[in-house]
Amino acid sequence: MAKNKYSYIVKENEKVAKASGHELKISPKHSVEICRTIRNMYLTDAKAFLEDVIQKKTVVPFKRHNKKVGHRKDLKGWPSGRYPVKAATEILKVIENAEANAENNEMDIENLKLIHVSANRGVIIQGWTSRAFGRASPFNTPTTHIQIVLGEA
Question: How open is the CA angle 118-119-125, to the nearest 5 degrees?
Answer without folding.
Answer: 160
